[in-house]
Amino acid sequence: MDIHEYQAKELFRAAGLPVPPDEVATTAEEAEAIARRLGGTVVVKAQVHTGGRGKAGGVKLASTPAEAKEHASRILGMTIKDLTVQKVLVTPAEDIANEAYVGVLIDRSSQAPMFMVSPEGGVDIEEVAETNPEAIRKLRVDPRYGLLPHQALWLADFLYEDPSLVKQASKMMTQLYQAFRSNGCSLAEINPLIVTPGGEVKAIDAKVSIDENELHRLPAVEAYRDTDAEPWAETRAREASLSFVKLEGDVGCCVNGAGLAMATMDLVKYYGGEPANFLDIGGSSNPDKVVAALEIITGDPNVKAILFNIFGGITRCDDVANGIVEATKRIDIKPPIVIRLTGTNDKEALEILEAAGFSADTSMDRVVERAVELAASA
Amino acid sequence: MSIFIDASTRLVVQGITGRDGSFHTSQMIEYGTQVVAGVTPGKGGQTFEAEDGTLVPIFNTVDRAVRETGANASVIYVPPAFASGAIMEAADAGVDLVVAITEGIAVQDMTRAYAFVQDRGTRLLGPNCPGAISPGKAKIGIIPGEITTPGPVGVISRSGTLTYEAVAQLTAAGIGQTTCVGIGGDPIIGTNFIDCLAAFKEDPDTEAIVVIGEIGGTDEQDAARWIRENLDLPVVGFIAGQTAPPGRTMGHAGAIISGSAGTAEEKMRTFEENGIAVAKRPVDIVSLVQNGLRT
Fold first, then answer.
1. Contact A177, A86 (CB under 8 A)
2. Is B62 helix (H, G, I), strand (E, B) or coil?
3. Distance CA B233, CA B206 (A)
4. pLDDT, tens digit, for every residue of B182-206?
5. Structural domain contains residue A36
């Protein structure tokens, strides 16, 4: 789960990291009032779950409260990578003598948390990794011991010469790891980490992703979930324990298993169509889940055909068939449905479906091809 | 022959009295797996009765189960909050193989459990995996036995149902398998593609290998390079997620394109560059394996 910058900064402050004060506004007037309270030049920053806010015009300097209001009214409601800005963060503009990068993430190849630091801050770290890999120092953290003091110093020592800065940054490494660890993060990033002309090290931007599997034991972090910032279909899918990702095509897909769901989308493309979504109904085959899945798929006006691909194992094909029949009673489904079922209880499923006027096939390729044809001719 | 599990495997089931644990214990026994013990803390001394009437003693701890029954492998059907603890308990009890079926284990918990099992030299398969089956011998996990048949092909996959799809098509075409291994869809897993490839390399009965990968990470790319340098068997590859958008988790916690890294395109290209026959569709896996076995 991605959280907003202002939320990430709250977590960082709680871990003791030096983060300048800020407040969130949902209207231009609030932004003006905050700018007046903070005094001096402020930055107005769009709060959306994506990078590239600055390039999109979502981050602006304002030297007066009136200017802050003006920027906020332009930024609020603007669209950045398909996301509408509903909140802005107002924070004092800092004078910057130096910018660096600090991040910690779960590294798959070393199967452990990994720190990355670079004196090249304020830019995309992936770009630095490609163009100038020597400018990045990496450290694998042994998750049983955490970040050791000498390791924190070794990271900070790569960023600065001045011992006072090294000392401050070293403490911040430890605090950042603490925030990462205690909030179940898969990523915690400060970019940039700045040095002020007076020699203070501060975190002026924050990016945090939380491991969804940690949320059940972190209610305060779960409360950061911004359901206003996500499409209705994703909220509905999460409530029904379905994995769902909306795509741009017109063939709605309902599949059991993530790998098979991806392979089904790919096959839609192979036969000249475009998938409308990724949707995994999971292992258990509660008919209610199938109903929720059909609600979500038919809620997308682009969908012109619906494709079921079920390989029964733990999932029982008859349960899925019952769910399809039940859904057609509860909701009005306009697009044609094509069904592939094979595996556990597929004969019973076929009887249930035929009694309700549906048919089903056992070949994945035939069914996908048919769904693509139907979508194209709709 | 086979890898990781065979008819001599003596299995302890952690979480044997739970809904999934009890169902799949019956399925594994029906398939012929020697299930010698179950573990549910607080239910030690009781007996689990499988659907076919087989009785399995239940213990409070894995250690006790291993000492009293000689179990040498464990399978975990424990809820996510307790599963990393269950993995470490099994490693401490000294089993050779731990298969973690559980989906939804916190990734930071797994980083610690992974380091723990590494230290003890235990092989961990999964988590978030369907387990492994050596057709005709034994299965650990949830792979449906009836879609497999004994034969010369090794199958390794990050997915569950996509593996079933591929294996069922091989079986329907009359091509059997030595062992089918699901390594799991999480970012941190105990056994990767290379570990399985190295095991298949040592298995005299495996004549061809199918590698089923997906978006996210570099495990497939690393495997491709390892294959070119170390393996003299025909390998067929398939990658799911060519149409997946970047930055989104596609069901499996590990199935995510980060920035520009871990795309299906990159993985398929690396396969091809290293001499692996790439199947465009799941159905093409069969003909490519047939080609490989002929040469």
1. no
2. helix
3. 9
4. 999 999 999 999 999 999 999 999 9
5. yes
Is B10-125's fold the same as B131-294's? yes
Using an 8 Å Cβ cutoff, are A193 and A121 in contact?
yes
ipTM value: 0.93
Chain-chain contact of B162 with A365 (C-beta, under 8 angstroms): no
Cα A71 from Cα A91, distance rounded (Å)? 13
- Do A160 and A189 lie in one domain? The reply is yes
Q: Where are the domains of chain B?
A: 10-125, 131-294
Contact A267 B281 (CB under 8 A): yes
Looking at the structure, tell me whether residues A69 and A116 fall in a common domain.
no
d(CA A368, CA A274): 11
Q: Exposed, middle or buried by CB within 10 Å (0-12, 13-18, 19+), for A79? A: exposed
Look at chain A and report how many structural domains it folds into.
Answer: 3
pLDDT for residue B295 is more than 80: no
Residue A161 annotated among the catalytic residues of the structure: no
B172 to chain A, any CB pair closer than 8 A? The answer is: no
Mean pLDDT for B196-221 is 96
Q: Report chain A residues whose CB lies below 8 A from the CB of B104.
A: 213
Q: Are A54 and A131 part of one and the same domain?
A: no
User: Would residue A180 count as lying in a domain?
Assistant: yes
Which CATH number goes with the domain that contains A150? 3.30.470.20
> Which residues in chain B (56-95) have CB-CB distances under 8 A to chain A?
80-81
Considering the domain delimited by B10-125, tell me its CATH architecture. 3-Layer(aba) Sandwich (3.40)
| CA atoms in the 13 A half-sphere facing the CB of B233 | 26
* Residue in A143, A247, A258 closest to B252 by CB: A258
Residue with tokens 């394996």: B289
pLDDT, one tens digit per residue, over A312-325 is 877 889 989 999 99
- Which residues, other chains included, contact A361 with Cβ-Cβ below 8 Å and sequence gap of 6+? A338, A339, A340, A367, A370
Q: Does the structure show a pLDDT above 70 at A299? A: yes
Q: Do B240 and A266 touch (CB under 8 A)?
A: yes
Tell me the β-bridge partners of A312: A343
Average pLDDT of chain A, as a whole number: 94
| Predicted pLDDT of residue A284 | 63
Of A92, A108, A138, the domain-final residue: A92
B102 CB contacts (<8 Å, ≥6 apart)? B76, B77, B78, B79, B80, B83, B126, B127, B128
Give CA–CA dist A353/A349, Å, rounded. 6
Whether A210 and chain B come into contact, CB under 8 Å, resolves to no
Q: Does domain B131-294 have CATH number 3.40.50.261?
A: yes
> Which site among A49, A82, A105, A108 would you substitute to test the B interface, given the most B Cβ atoms closer than 10 Å to its Cβ?
A108
Paired tokens of B242: 């060519």
> Which of A171, A188, A222 is a domain's end point?
A222
The verdict on A192 and A269 lying in the same domain is no
What residues make up the domain containing A335? 232-377
* Cβ <8 Å between A126 and B108: no
